[in-house]
Amino acid sequence: MKEFELINHYFKGRGIIRRDVELGIGDDCALVSVPEGNQLAVTTDTLVAGVHFFEDIPPRALGHRVIAVNLSDLAAMGAEPAWVSLGLTLPNADMQWLEAFTEGMHEIAEYYNVQVIGGDTTQGPLTITVCAKGIVPAGKALKRSSARVGDWIYVTGPLGDAGLAIEARKRDLQLEPQHYKAALEKFHFPAPRVAAGQVLRGLATSAIDISDGLLADLKHILHSSHVGAKIHADKVPMSNALRSSLDEDARMQLALGFGDDYELLFTVNDNNKNAVETRLKQYGVEPVCIGQITANNGDIQLLNQGLPYQLTGQGFEHFS
Ligand code: ADP
Ligand code: MG
């Protein structure tokens, strides 16, 4: 199949059409309109076979995941996703693979009212780059740089499941089948916190999505905001699958150190604490308060049941 045939078959005329897209796939550029009073939020993430996913990942999951991780960045800024473009590098044009991949991609794009407006297709080792664009009212984006001492630190959901799925496979851990299945489903089909991000706009003081691990991503907020944090490890939400599968130290390493779950981490001041909880619950999100911002520049004070706590060993370094 030639490049243009492939594009025509799998991308052109598929997926939703937005009214703000004057020109989608088919010309040298797409043309879109950003509504007045809004800013364009733009993000790019690349997934490389063997680095970010196992080569035998189901293609439908890969199509979902590559869109999800990009929408998660938009969510972390409080932006509403609108358009994506897709850089696709394929070792060969496997029709069955492409059918499932594009199905996974279009499913999640449609769910979030996102139009695929263009891309590029080349031959080479399997690599997928998505550039996602969203809109956010001017000046209202959630940044990493505005957490303040005394703010409460929240996460939007359980952490460590993606890590459990990956470690189980890499280390051949013998998990209960239903726990492995649940963790793998979370890794394959992460749900970006798109609604939560927009709810947090105007309420949270800062936000980030947890892609590299709770502590690593929290550090980005601390450095940008010139503050520190106290974190209660025992408050960090974990799924039943993770709790049932690993001992406390191993679970903590995954939930605090792994990432890939794409929950949001955000800070909120005392005045807006209740409002944030109430509003997020209206959207089916159960935010959990795990700590507080301190003045100790860049430092994370980690506690477990009120006592100083350290993550042990390097048993679970990131998939690389
Ligand atoms: P050009 O040579 O001008 O870059 P291409 O032949 O690469 O054009 O692409 C033709 C059209 O198809 C463009 O509108 C481009 O955005 C779109 N396109 C190419 N590859 C993809 C893809 N993988 N997904 C979505 N759109 C694509
Ligand atoms: Mg091109």
From TrEMBL:
Keyword check for Thylakoid: no
InterPro entries, A to Z: PurM-like_C_dom (IPR010918), PurM-like_C_sf (IPR036676), PurM-like_N (IPR016188), PurM-like_N_sf (IPR036921), ThiL-like (IPR006283)
Annotated GO MF terms: ATP binding; magnesium ion binding; thiamine-phosphate kinase activity
Residues holding Mg(2+) 5: D212
E.C. code: 2.7.4.16
UniProt-annotated binding residues for ATP: G119, D120, R144, S211
Catalyzed reactions per annotation: thiamine phosphate + ATP = thiamine diphosphate + ADP
More about this protein: Reaction mechanism of ThiL seems to utilize a direct, inline transfer of the gamma-phosphate of ATP to TMP rather than a phosphorylated enzyme intermediate.
PANTHER family listed in its UniProt record: THIAMINE-MONOPHOSPHATE KINASE
Family from the record: Belongs to the thiamine-monophosphate kinase family.
Protein task: Catalyzes the ATP-dependent phosphorylation of thiamine-monophosphate (TMP) to form thiamine-pyrophosphate (TPP), the active form of vitamin B1.
NCBIfam families for the chain: thiL
Designated name of the protein: Thiamine-monophosphate kinase
Gene transcribed to yield this protein: thiL
